[in-house]
Amino acid sequence: MKSFRQLNWSTLSAAITATTAGMVLIAGTAHAQSSVQLYGQIDEWVGSQKPPGGQRTWELGGGGMSTSYWGFKGSEDLGSDFKTIFALEAFFRPQNGQYGRFAGDTFFGRNAYVGVESRYGTFAAGRLTTQLFISTILFNPFADSFQFSPMIYHTYLGMGTFPAYPTDQGSLGDSSWNNAVSYSSPNFGGLTGGVMYALGNQAGLASQHKDSAQVLYFNGPLAATAAYQYMNFNTVAGDFANPAGADVVAGLRSQSIAQLGVTYDLKFVKLYSQYMLTRNSVATGDYHVNTGQGGFTVPVAGGTVMASYAYSKDAGGLNQKRSTYALGYDYPLSRRTDLYAAYMSDKFSAQPAGDTFGVGIRVKF
Fold first, then answer.
1. Which end of the chain is less crowded, N or C, counting CB atoms within 10 A of the terminal residue's CB?
2. Given this model, what pLDDT does residue 242 score?
3. Is the pLDDT of residue 25 over 80?
4. How many CB atoms lie within 10 A of CB 28?
5. Fold of the domain spanning 9-364
6. Which H or E run contains 26?
7. What is the pLDDT of residue 279?
8. How confident is the model over 257-305, as pLDDT tens digits?
9. Helix segments in 119-173, DSSP class H
10. How many Å from the N-terminal Cα to the C-terminal Cα in the chain?
């Protein structure tokens, strides 16, 4: 993955101010129905983390319950129920002021797209959040927490993430895809659907494409999802931050993931459940990973208690088992600010259990 030159914050601040002013001026002069918004969230937490089989670290970090980011989005009315839309969204680490979720991350790593929205649906092109990620975060109690969500750990923090020992569980690739085009349908009584395709974008890499589809349903207390993702490669996946890490799955040719999710809100408790089947095709033979997640949220003393448990087991690969559970409490101080505390335990086959615990604050703007 390419590195980007670190930006001085004062320079970045000046650039943001100038960009905002320019966008507002353009929006105001281009069309009476244009709009541009600046938005985002800042999340800081303090606590301790010990990966399975690793050493404990005490840290002040960013993104305990949600990854910090800022972004611009806008639209322009084209008439006849059509409008153009765009979004530019960048992650950052508030603990040190650096951009990205990690060193070398893409600057607009969350989203960077332009599209057209109408009563017939929405088309978008650019760097887009994957449909699998959306289904993953909507149907587990800890949503998009990369520190405390068991389902996030089993889906995105597995294969290639723990270099101290080999693991062949988890999804390849990022939570967003480059070079992608998507279509999302209108809402039909709570039912929506969408498809996405990402091109290899390099000569000789026509086979390295990515495909996905998703159905979402929201109606009263019931919500459900079905998502499918397929990633095809020549031999080694091109989505590893460090290509040498691909040795954990030598000869990888493709990966397909199917995920189902359901929630039901009983008011006094909201129930969550997910099932995910991952199929990895490698030169020496295919293997499967089965993953399940169950959890709940309960309103308590003005806040919310969150609990979740996820379990994964593969067959035909390294034959690993992984079990992860988390318990947390989130308390809103206002509409935009909340405090939280959480504990998570993570256990891999033949490794001592790891854990993460801490407290944090999240502010949305």
1. C
2. 56
3. no
4. 12
5. Porin (2.40.160)
6. helix 9-30
7. 96
8. 999 999 999 999 999 999 999 999 988 889 999 999 999 999 999 999 9
9. 131-138, 150-156
10. 30
| DSSP helix/strand/coil, 324 | strand
Can you tell me the distance from the alpha carbon of 189 to that of 59, in angstroms, rounded to the nearest whole number?
46
Q: CB under 8 Å to 5, separation ≥6 — which residues? A: none
Is the CB of residue 286 less than 8 Å from the CB of residue 316? yes
List residues bridging with 270 in a β-sheet. 265, 297
Closest among 79, 83, 155 to 124, alpha carbons compared = 83
Task: Please report, as a single letter, which amino acid is at residue 321.
Answer: K
Q: Can you spell out the DSSP letters for 206-251? A: TT--EEEEEEEEEETTEEEEEEEEEEE-SSS-TT-SSGGGGGGGTT
Both tokens assigned to 106 = 């893409």
Quick one: tokens of 274?
């997910």
Q: Which two tokens stand for residue 109?
A: 């790593």
Q: What is the mean pLDDT of residues 87-95?
A: 97
Inform me whether the pLDDT recorded for 22 exceeds 60.
no
* DSSP annotation of 188: B
In whole angstroms, give the CA distance from residue 306 to residue 330: 8
Burial of residue 69, with CB atoms counted within 10 A of its CB: 0-12 exposed, 13-18 middle, 19 or more buried: buried
Compute CA 154 distance to the chain's CA centroid, rounded to the nearest angstrom: 12
In Å, the largest CA–CA distance within the chain is 63
The structural domains of the chain, with segments of one domain joined by +, span 9-364
Classify strands 337-348 and 321-332 as parallel, antiparallel or unpaired. antiparallel
Structure tokens at 341: 């505390």
The number of helix segments (H) and strand segments (E) in the chain equals 3, 18
The number of residues making up the chain comes to 365
From residue 225, alpha-carbon distances to 138, 222, 228, 258, 273 in Å are: 9, 11, 10, 11, 11
The contacts found for 204-208 with CB under 8 angstroms, 24 or more apart, are 205/234, 205/238, 207/232, 207/233, 207/234, 208/232, 208/233, 208/234, 208/238
Q: CB neighbours of 178 closer than 8 A, spacing ≥ 6?
A: 106, 127, 198, 201
